[in-house]
Specification:
alpha/beta; 6-stranded mixed β-sheet; 3-stranded mixed β-sheet; globular; binds hexanoyl-coenzyme A; ClpP/crotonase-like_dom_sf; Enoyl-CoA_hydra_C
Length: about 260
């Protein structure tokens, strides 16, 4: 597929999506969001892709939704546009998504980062929700996902101030997994992705599903869900192979099925 605002590649079993509007710090216009969603859905259905990696070309991950595109919008137009339905699709991707953030991840850019399952960042990365300074607020999950990560007290402080947090702060609050010098960020992210890609794919998938239930559901409901996924894995060839290999004291040969 030919995309206008992103670049898509595959290196072995890693699907790579690069945001590609570097002149405007990868400001996310609506077509770009559609392209991200479309490419992720294709990768999700492509058996040869095991892990998706997302990062930005140029100086930044993404400095927010494209302000020029929405400056004249009115509420009815936004309601009818229903643009956030596409963002919901991102939350339904079953394969692991790892984001690598350098430079700015602001507003919609931060929201896109928060959709990733794991986040690696460069030491100079800056995260924030400056929407308040434009007299608006996050609309693609920012108030919800940040609050689930930090708790309401800290989340309100960041959302009301509009200030940017450093990678160090983001790491301390569990928003990102790891920090690296910028020169090795992508390389380290890909290294991590390759390792994850070699794990039994169905376990990776069902663990992701179950963990997000912990975010959304009560403990009781989440555990019912976990139990179903646990049982379901015993229908896979990989489960038979994994346990047989253990008993036979050899390395397993996983097929992803
Ligand atoms: C459109 C943007 C942009 C954005 C940067 N640019 N962010 N264009 N939308 N969100 C453009 C600038 O206009 C400029 O274009 C070029 O990118 C380089 O940016 P500079 O401002 O010159 O760079 P710098 O001085 O380094 O400042 C970087 C910055 C600043 C601090 C990140 O660009 C900034 O404050 N950007 C806006 C951040 C923001 O408010 N984001 C939230 C948007 S609201 P020219 O043509 O002048 O070179 C939002 C709502 C989400 O995200 C709703 C759900 C999707």
């Amino acid at each position: 597929t030919n995309y206008e605002y992103i670049q898509v590649d595959q290196e072995e079993s890693i699907g790579i999506i690069r945001l590609n509007r570097p002149k405007v710090l990868n400001a996310l216009n609506r077509k770009m969001v559609s392209e991200i969603v479309q490419s992720m859905r294709e990768m999700d259905r492509n058996d040869s892709v095991r892990v998706i990696v997302l990062y930005g070309n140029g100086k930044s991950f993404a400095a927010g939704a494209d302000i020029t595109e929405m400056a004249q919008d009115d509420s009815i137009h936004l309601e009818l546009l229903n643009q956030f339905a596409e963002w919901d699709d991102l939350a339904h991707i079953k394969k692991p998504i790892i984001g690598a953030v350098h430079g700015f991840a602001l507003g919609g850019g931060f929201e896109l980062a928060l959709v990733c399952d794991l986040l690696f960042a460069s030491e100079d990365a800056k995260f924030g929700f400056p929407e308040i300074n434009l007299a608006v607020m996050p609309g693609a999950g920012g108030t919800q996902r940040l609050t689930k990560l930090m708790g309401k007290t800290k989340a309100l402080e960041w959302l009301w101030s509009g200030e940017m947090m450093t990678a160090e702060t983001a790491e301390a609050w569990g928003i990102i997994n790891r920090r690296y010098p910028q020169e090795i960020l992508v390389e380290e992210t890909l290294k991590y992705a390759r390792n994850l890609a070699n794990k039994p794919a169905l376990s990776v998938r069902f663990i992701k599903e179950a963990v997000y239930k912990a975010v959304d559901y009560s403990l009781y409901e989440g555990m019912q869900y976990e139990r179903k996924n646990f049982s379901l894995l015993f229908s896979s060839d990989d489960q038979k192979e994994g346990m047989k290999a253990f008993v036979e004291k050899r390395k397993p040969n996983f097929k992803g099925r």
